[in-house]
Amino acid sequence: MSARERFRRILDRLLAASGTERALISLASLVLAIAVGTVIILVAGRMTTCETAAFWLTHPRPLGVPELFRVGFCYDPVTVYDRLFLGALDDPLSGNWSPLDGQFAVTLRETTVLVFTGLSVALAFRAGVFNIGTQGQMVVGALATALAVLWVAPLFSGVVGTLVLVPFGLLVGAVGGGLYGAVPGALKAYADANEVITTIMLNFIATGIVLYLVSEVFKDPDSLANQTVSLPDYALFPVVLFGEQFGVSVLALLVALAAVVAVYYLLEHTPFGYDIRASGLQPAAAEYGGVDAARTVVASMTLSGALGGLAGAVYVLMILGNFQTGVPAYGFDGITVAILAGNNPLGVTVAAFLFGVLKSGTTVVQFATDVPPQLVGVLRGLIILFVAMPEFFRLLGRRIAGPERESEREATVATDGGHDTEHRAPETRDGSGGGPRR
Amino acid sequence: MSERMWRPGDLDLGRRGIVGVVSALAVLVLGVLTLAAPESAAGTLGGAVFNSGTLASALRLSVPIALAAVGGIFAEKSGVINIGLEGLLIISAFGAVYAMDVVDNLWVAFLAGVLVSTVLAGLFAVVCIEFRADQIIAGLAVWLIALGLAPFASQVVYGAPNTDSVRTPPTAADVLGPVPVVGDVQSALAAIPVAGALFDANVVVYLTFLVVGLSWHTLYRTRFGQWVQASGENPKALDTAGVNVSRVRYAAVLLSGVLSGLGGASLSLTLGQFTGNGPTMVNGKGFIAIVAYLFGNYNPIGAFLSTLLFAGLDALQIALQLQDVGVPNQLIRVTPFVMVIVVLALVGRTRLPAAAGDHYESGEE
Predict the structure, then answer these.
(1) Closest chain B residue by Cα to residue A396
(2) Are A212 and B155 within 8 A, CB to CB?
(3) Which of A374, A389, A409 sits opposite B148 (nearest CB)?
(4) I want to staple B97 with a disulfide (CB 3.0 to 4.6 A). Which of A46, A50, B274, B302 is the partner?
């Protein structure tokens, strides 16, 4: 039982779900995660102490029935989710919606970085490789970008500087992240080292080495924080449309969307993309068909790392303006984004926006309530857990669809959610196919 | 697959043996160099290696890793790869300190840690076994849920990602000291130069020894252990023999929750605090545990020995940080992670249980 076979079966299962069904499962997972999140908020609201309760839970009291009980909670889940979603979108329902100078800009800023990390994880996944190391690749890419641009910046100035330095910075970030991603790729391809473990270890190593470099070697001498000197303004993504203070650039968002199209085209319309998909789906068959499995693993991890590195470059050139240690967990969010999107590059855009809302909404929630910001981290894990169990939602769907369909289980399996009987075949085969199980 | 020449439970040699022999030789050479030239660089390193403080902290550091690793062995042997050990350690580390803070009773604190970890492991088991989720993704979800939930809860209760300080479990000296003769023997043993640390450790260290021994016995010498192995190697045969494969897998995954819970509780209680910043105080120990049992070839004793290797390295880097060796501390700190990658690359593909990662569906529907 090789790891690759396992990936093949996951991908089989993911592909078996038709597009509609997958979108429904992602949506249902989100709803379920929010429901569980509500319970967590309520429980947490009982564990902490507050002057006055923010939320009361009581029974309905029609026609003057006296109140029998009333439970107070320190956190109000309705406010939390209202702020989380509507707050992140700058209250589109309030009448005078001005998306250009408010929280919506922050949402787009987060979305831009998440598109890159989501693409990074999704691309590796399509090749049958779990890249948990996007975070580390992003950190390496970010530092490489900051240092290289700092070094070259004095040679340029003004508009020319922007035209040269921004693409240069992106390139350096991609190369840095790509090289760092190639390491676990090569370890997997040539030494059979499990990439889940190596990439997680490389995340720790990247954080440690970068902390050393930034605190000891490249530290801004005038700053107490572990950060480099600021890059000159002309070396950063120019601000168009949105206010300066939000750190969002439409141009960077366009680069992100271009990356989406590029990855989609690469996967669907090039021979190399075919190799990647084939190795992800049927590694044995792919190898038989002449795909160099080791080379494909290294190449896809390198590309995946390059996308992670691009995320780091954009983070530096758009948001920070220099490099600081303590890069937020965009890489781990990228895992959720990719899984929510079913590893489809186009879906990544939607999932990244959704997660951009969650991340940007977190700060609004922090202003409006006392609920700790780590809540979004919990939701992130819950969403992954629920998307990973499509069978749960199928069972649920069957339960709702009615017991009369229960008897013809096979037929139900083939029809619920999707109409694509042919694609559903691997699903029904699941219990009987593959190796020594039956 | 079945060409098993060694007795079940024996350690196999090969690349593992080579790594072990090389490490042993390195320690030996270092010992000689330390005695011969205490002022040289090797002497400094040797001084750190043979400091009894280093062994003491190696033992302390190996507790959570070894317990999680042994738990992971049961889960994976039964056919469920539990990559969420890190999450189980995180959640139990917080749960134990919180319970300790509330009731100030060590038994309750350990129980609470074990309980939260087992509940989370149970959720993981249901998702994997009942709803046929992919085990790797579900395991990552367990990790990420705990990574969010523990600091969240700490923030709710203590207003910060770090909890308040609590009382720590006793050491051997605390327990045995007051006993007439035994106490004297203990302090005499503890005074032995390097190995003395073995006799003056925290009680959780002895708990770990006990768990490792018992787990070895359970896995290789009991009926349940046979079921666990069969469930991972040949679930069909186990099913035919009339044993419920799902039930065995549930038991094994829950057991991994119990043992990781003990590990997480030991980790935070011995330090007297849960720290939840960044990767939390667990800081990759759950993932190192996975590599430890892969390197130990799924044998609890092997896993414990490889844990000692990683924990020893970690203890060494902590000791070296205190001395000025010319290498910056931030770089010394990453050595255990580098070592994990090196070991993984050397050992290469380990022989997974044949049905690990597979969903098994019984014939009866």
Answers:
(1) B131
(2) no
(3) A374
(4) B274
CB distance A372–B152 less than 8 Å?
Answer: yes
pTM of the model: 0.85
Residue ranges of domains in chain A: 99-386
Integer CA distances (angstroms), B294 to A257, A259, B84, B237, B298, in order:
41, 38, 15, 25, 6
Q: A374 and B141: CB-CB below 8 Å?
A: no
Closest residue to A200, CB basis, from B236, B284, B330: B284
pLDDT tens digits, one per residue of A24-51: 888 899 999 999 999 999 998 888 877 7
CB A97 within 8 A of CB A346: no
Neighbours of A185 (CB within 10 A): 30
Residue of B nearest to A10 (CA): B134
Q: What is the pLDDT of residues A173-226, one digit of tens each?
A: 999 999 999 999 999 999 888 888 899 899 999 999 999 999 888 888 888 888
Q: Which tokens hold the place of B230? A: 């069969």
Mean pLDDT confidence for B42-50: 67
Tell me which fold the domain A99-386 belongs to.
ABC transporter involved in vitamin B12 uptake, BtuC (1.10.3470)
Looking at A27-41, A70-84, A423-437, B199-213, which range is the least confident one?
Answer: A423-437
Cβ neighbours of A382 in B, within 8 Å: 141, 145
User: Considering only CB atoms, which chain A residues are within 8 Å of B147?
Assistant: 377, 381
Tell me, rounded to whole angstroms, the distance of Cα B306 from its chain centroid: 10
Using a CB-CB cut-off of 8 Å, the residues of chain A touching B236 are 436-438
